[in-house]
Design brief:
Layout: H1 45-55, E1 60-63, H2 70-77, E2 83-86, H3 90-104, E3 107-112, H4 115-129, E4 134-140, H5 163-169, E5 175-178, H6 184-198, E6 202-207, H7 234-249, E7 255-258, H8 268-278, E8 281-284, E9 299-302, H9 312-318, E10 322-325, E11 346-350, E12 353-356, E13 361-363, H10 367-375, H11 383-391, H12 409-419, E14 424-428, H13 432-438, E15 447-450, H14 459-470, E16 475-481, H15 482-488, H16 492-497, E17 503-507, H17 513-518, H18 531-539, E18 546-549, E19 555-559
Parallel strand pairs: 1-2, 1-3, 3-4, 4-6, 5-6, 7-8, 7-10, 8-9, 10-11, 14-15, 14-16, 16-17
Antiparallel strand pairs: 11-12, 12-13, 17-19, 18-19
């Protein structure tokens, strides 16, 4: 279940290969210095950036052209291993790079100066909140304009080119402004390697007149990244494992719960190893759905307080010890901070820290190292899982819809459940799709993604585009409300253009249903669209697309064949 972020598993010092893709496919990237000399016409800044993207596993870049990035785009698309995916707007390009990174481990988008940069900013903030390495590349001002009092178009009319940079500083972990060739090689490489190490977005601005200029620093194939592996403090690791094992082995009915930071910690496999060894009942936080195998024999469902999977909350909250691996307890995941948990019963394992109850905290301890070492120290205890089996009652089958009766959501998702397999992935939009999709039981190999921390409506359209582009062998099932769809609908066009096979279930609630549940008002009602007619118009007879309205005004079904 591990996702190797940035196509680099930086936590495996035993291996010399640094280009391992998330699906285990080895890239031909070794810790050796390449000897290939590049033709001078191709030894440009733009081609170097393109080679670096391909080298880390990015084969598709999501772009919106603008006059500041046109030459850069010429050099990016000239790279044989890189495909340009032109998007309808910058926000969707950023969302697409987000979805791509969730599958490939890293994503990239290219936009133009300020008007493009500020448009994509919301998507970059979402990727930052979800710990996704994303390379945001912006075509910047001519290098000769820096240091002058010139006022440029696409700005707010001041002779200051730093507005965009200042905006990106709070939502990226590194910013590189490349306005001279002498240090361009170093700036680009530092930015990309930082994104991979920190698992966060970075910002790279490249002056529009530099992308096509050859320079001696680009005259050879770039040396592959060799990121120093992060290591646990051995004494701290041993102390943390000893204290945790003593705490858990005294418990009568301990449980373990997986959180969203399992992804950034690359600890999915280690978490499963601990479950196998301990026999503990295994649950998942809602934001970690898809990171823990739901076909595991001890899996008991999603722990989400009052809206948990049936019987899951009873087992977790009645346990006398619980281990949370990579949790984020925000107002969403805690149902308004209403979880019935006690700190003195909890072991909280973060990517590089372990805290045991109200007692000691151990720093510089990597989650995957801790979980694997702990698995060797725990006594087998399946009491919590046996309790779950005793109280568990299988879900009943929803009543069949009578002829001409409006289709009910529970009937729809009964059919969706039968569609899921290792060759599918689910994308759930912010809103009521969160709750409906949480009830799906994911078979082995079935992907699942949603944006719980940032919760930006409309995210799923772009993310579906990016995810499907990253794994064309999977069929993506996207569940989107009508309000969210209206925000970003244009890039269904890009899905059709690129021959994707996505199935979009558009849930037409006549407005912002999730907001109605929070606080109702006339502002939650939106203009109804003819959604199938809209997609047919976008299709325009080019590419493969099929749409239909199910026998109800509530459900629309869009199928990109």
């Amino acid at each position: 279940m591990d996702t190797k972020i940035g196509a680099l598993d930086v936590c495996k010092p035993a291996s010399n290969e640094v280009g391992s893709l998330p699906n285990g496919t080895a890239m031909a990237i070794q810790n050796s210095v390449p000897s290939t000399v590049i033709n001078s016409s191709e030894a440009t800044l733009g081609r170097h950036l393109a080679r670096r993207l391909v080298q880390i596993g990015v084969t598709d870049v999501f772009t919106v052209p603008g006059d500041f990035n046109l030459t850069l785009l010429d050099h990016l698309i000239a790279e044989p291993g890189l495909t340009n995916i032109g998007c309808c707007n910058e926000l969707n390009a950023g969302y697409a790079a987000d979805g791509y990174a969730r599958s490939r481990g890293v994503g990239a988008c290219v936009v133009t100066f300020t008007v493009g940069g500020l448009s994509v900013l919301n998507a970059i903030a979402g990727a930052y909140s979800e710990n996704l390495p994303l390379i945001c590349i912006v075509g910047g001002p001519n290098s000769n304009d820096y240091g002058t009092s010139r006022i440029l178009h696409h700005t707010i009319g001041l002779p200051d080119f730093s507005q965009e940079l200042r905006c990106f500083q709070t939502v990226t972990c590194y910013q590189a402004v490349v306005n001279n060739l002498e240090d361009a090689h170093e700036s680009i490489d530092t930015a990309i390697s930082t994104a991979l190490k920190e698992s966060k977005p970075v910002y790279i601005s490249i002056s529009c007149n530099l992308a096509g200029i050859p320079h001696p620093t680009f005259s050879r194939e770039p040396v592959p990244f060799s990121l120093s592996p992060r290591l646990s403090n051995q004494w701290g690791l041993e102390a943390a494992v000893e204290a945790a094992a003593e705490f858990l082995n005294k418990a009568v009915k301990p449980v373990m719960v997986g959180g969203p930071k399992l992804r950034v910690a690359h600890a999915g496999d280690a978490f499963v190893e601990l479950a196998d060894a301990s026999g503990y009942a295994l649950a998942v936080m809602p934001s970690a759905k898809g990171l823990v195998p739901e076909h595991h024999p001890h899996f008991i469902g999603t722990y989400w307080g009052a809206v948990s999977t049936a019987f899951c909350a009873e087992i977790v909250e009645s346990a006398d010890a619980y281990l949370f691996a990579g949790p984020i307890f925000n107002d969403y995941s805690s149902v308004g901070y209403s979880l019935l948990l006690k700190k003195e019963k909890a072991i909280i394992v973060q990517p590089d820290r372990v805290t045991i109850a109200n007692g000691p905290s151990f720093g510089c301890v990597l989650m995957k190292d801790f979980l694997r070492a702990l698995a060797k120290k725990l006594n087998h205890n399946n009491t919590a899982h046996e309790n779950y089996r005793r109280i568990f009652v299988p879900d009943g089958h929803p009543l069949k819809c009578a002829p001409r009766e409006p289709l009910r959501v529970n009937v729809l998702f009964q059919h969706v459940q039968k569609m899921l397999s290792s060759e599918t992935a689910v994308i759930a939009e912010t809103g009521d799709s969160w709750f409906n999709c949480q009830k799906l039981r994911l078979p082995a190999g079935c992907g699942y993604e949603f944006q719980m921390q940032y919760g930006s409506i409309g995210w799923s359209v772009g993310a579906t585009l990016g995810y499907a582009q990253a794994v064309p062998e999977k069929r993506v099932l996207a569940f989107i409300g009508d309000g969210s769809f209206q925000v970003t609908a244009q890039d269904v066009s890009t899905m059709i253009r690129n021959g994707q096979r996505t199935i979009i279930f558009l849930i037409n609630n006549g407005g912002y249903t999730i907001e109605v549940e929070i606080h109702d008002g006339p502002y939650n009602v939106i203009k109804n669209w003819n959604y199938t007619g809209l997609v047919d118009a976008i299709h325009n007879g080019e590419g493969k697309c099929w749409t239909t309205k199910v026998i109800s005004s509530l459900i629309r079904f869009l199928n990109l064949l």
